[in-house]
Amino acid sequence: MRLSTFWYCLKQGVKNICRNIWFSLASAATISACIFLFCLFFSIIGNIQYMVQHVESTVGITVLFDETLPEEQILALGEQIGQRTEIKSMNYVSAQEAWDTFKTEYFAGHEELAEGFADDNPLAGSASYEIYLHDIEQQEGLVAYLEGLEGVRQVNYSNTTAAGFSSFNKMISLLSLVIIGVLLAVAVFLINNTISVAAAFRKQESQIMRLIGATNFMIRSPFIVEGVLIGLMGAVIPLIGMYFLYTRTVVYLMERFHILSNMLYFIPIEEIYPLMVGVALILGIGIGFFGSFFTIRKYLKV
Amino acid sequence: MIEISNINKTYETGNKALKDINIQIADGEFVFIMGRSGSGKSTLLKLLLKEAEPTSGRIVVNDMNLQKMPRRYVPKYRRRLGVVFQDFRLLKDRSVFENVAFAQRVVGASPRTIRESVPEMLKMVGLSAKYKMLPRQLSGGEQQRVAIARALINRPEVLLADEPTGNLDHQNAIEIMKLLKEINEGGTTVVVVTHSQEIVEQMGGRVITLERGRLISDEVKGGHSDET
Question: What is the DSSP letter of B40?
Fold first, then answer.
């Protein structure tokens, strides 16, 4: 394609927008609203999942071994367990470490009470592994595996927590899919409408183009440019708004609910925003491109 | 050379628009196609423009068989034709210059080619001084001149004119016909579809008459041609 042809198509696309400025603005505003809602859900869902993942990562499995099992064998078993791919991290807690922690937590301020135990560790035989998973849904399978190991006395885990988080995650994903799907359909319908109006407005011009030998590409390009530009506008406006809204909301929530600060974990703007920009731009341009492409195919035939 | 052989066209409604039409038009000829409303002359023009397909028969334009032409070649084929309509079909929001340049832009001509050829074409149709004007600021005859300039800007081999004088007064109509004659004298084959007996008689030349989809006469300067 010649550069002059490219500029011609771009210019005609911009002219199309200007000719139907109110329709174009209405479409861009509606796409903006859709993409704004999308970004809002994207942020909410992303942050909920972030918090859920954080909480998940604190839910672990504790493996206790036979009291008579020597430490070397416990460590060997630990190495074997550590090869499982679903494990994110695991810590070995020796009997001495377990007793030290217990002393710190329960005899704080009354250390003299623990002195009575002297060198006699009441938690001898309580060496354990704390295991954290990549995905809490894999907990059940791993527990079955651990319980089947020889030398393992007990496996402590929370079944209800795992099930609760899994279903919560699934529900959020499903909800987001439905909402995004509906928003997409609305946006495509709107761009379709705008391009139909533009095509009707330029029907005579398109007919003339066709009869003087313009290719389909040449006839359709201005409409596709129009759709893409509207989509782009529809994406950029909410992205600017979201940047300020997100940063201010996070600051507000952290200040307002300071008491819950150990539970509220937000994705930093510099992490979530590039992804949001990418998805919103693809969405806006995609809606504009495909909406206009399929609409204009209906109107213009060789 | 335009060769129309045994052409029949029946629309989906059952209307038989053309019945066994045979016409040959040589390169550089000036031909009138006459007939009343519903005679099939517009359908014939549509077939030549490949806007519609015949039900049967064969159309060859400059060695290109239109029935065997793949769709992707249609735009290239149309660039070799110029077309003028009764209602001018100018872009109302663009100047005379832009209307003529439009035909070149849409076929991807370079800005330099456009800058050079549009003023030349406007000079030929006598509108050099009015290149900045909008169509609504021009008379009917002038608007048709713009349409002719647009049809000729890509140097077509054949010019098809569908009732080019239908919306004009007699004086303007004669001037437009004279312009078409001049274009023909430059070597372009010109096919004019009209229902105006007056114009045809005044201009002379070959006249093909259609009636209810049939070719009823093919006269060259008052006499019948050999074949068809």
Answer: S
